[in-house]
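User: I'm preparing a small set of examples for a lab meeting where we compare how different chains pack in three dimensions. I only have the primary sequence for this one, and I'd like the structure in token form so I can line it up with the others. Please keep the answer compact; I'll paste it straight into my notes.
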Amino acid sequence: MLLRLATETGVLVSNGVTGMSVLLRFVNLGLAGALFLAGISTHAQESALLPKQFGSWTAASPSDVPSRLVPPVQRELGAGNTESLNYSNRSKQIIVALQRYKDPSSAYAAYTLELNPGMQPSDVRRLSAAGEGRVVMLIGNFVVDVEQAKNISSVDIEGLAATLESHADSTPLPPIRAYLPEEKLVPGTQRYALGPAGFDAALATLNESKFAPITPEIGFATGAEAMLATYQSERNKSQDLLIIDYPTPQIAEQRLHHIQGALAANPNLAGATVERKASLLSVVLSPASAEAAAKLRDEIRYETSVTWNEPSQTLTDPPWVVVLKGIFVGTFAFCGIAIVVGIAFGGVRVLTKRLFPGKVFDRTEDIEVLQLGLSGKRIDPRDFY
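Assistant: Understood. Below is the structure token output for the 385-residue chain.
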């Protein structure tokens, strides 16, 4: 059977098969359009974090700021959409880029990769750095990059950070970042890694890519976290410290042997040694000297503690006055009870003998007297009662 389908453009379709294909094409176009609109709506909802205005700055137009992280690192850290806007304040211009991540730990890893050696800590907020015309801030699970930062005051940046902080995740950051020694630390070289892609990227930024063979031996799948930083050493030499934190000492001991094997199998990694303290491994990459590496390792701020979860009691000796009091009271009480019981028993015995003489107590048939027979007279027990 032939079908005729009249379209809005007046084109006539003269067979059933062609008409069905046209109908399916219209349906597919409709679904694609709906998905496109839904994507636009979702993107608009996710891109509503940067304010239209803060302080004396007003958003002028969107900006295209590409991410500084390679795609494998972005996927590993759960990176979301990047939002960037141009802001103007009279004749001054700045660019603000915001990158969101799945949690603050992932954002902290990205934040450290955004830093460049030499960037100094900023007074804008606790986790922020300034240098090369930029201010990079970590705000919960957001990493905020302010370019052309010389045009904006610290007060305005603090206002922007306060606005974004109300939308950020406030989960605590990983404690491993506090284990790094502070003395002779090169600013802007701290790197935090949660996975192999981020670890390799951290090695590359510190010019230590030759240590990439140990990446699969670290065991990030077991819950390992890694922290790296560069330190100045003797004679203007530098050395990089790597610390790896594991959930348990048993996993750390297992991974210690894996890393030792990788270091021994690569002649280019000669001089680097790995040591374990509880659940923390430490490796000095490219050490300046054995003494300098040992000194740097000793400065790691990591202490172990044992927590006893079962209920416990603290026993203390009572004062001697209390002890003596207890002794006297107990003695007098025992003596008093003995006297009362003795009197009661004696009274009952006397009363019974008066009421029932020779029937309950002192019955002659129950009394036996042992005689030696020295005299011929037999002793009668009744003579004694």
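A couple of notes for your slides: The radius of gyration is 44 Å. Confidence is low (pLDDT under 50) at residues 1-20, 31-46.

User: Perfect, thanks.
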